[in-house]
Design brief:
alpha+beta, single chain, about 70 residues
Length: about 70
Amino acid sequence: MPQGNKANLTFESEQTAALVNLLASSQSVGKIFIEPHLKKRLGFSSEKIRLHGCQAVRHDDHIHVQLK
């Protein structure tokens, strides 16, 4: 994510939630990593959605998906 352009970006909460829920419903997806505040903000309850725990990377401007 280009950090210098952040002011011009819009967070699409409905589309993001729909995408993450679709991924979480897939049998081929093992885990989805995002920040806890986004999990709470978007109302996710799937156990597949979790914090990565990596101190080097924040997951509030991107999503990691781990396949099974």
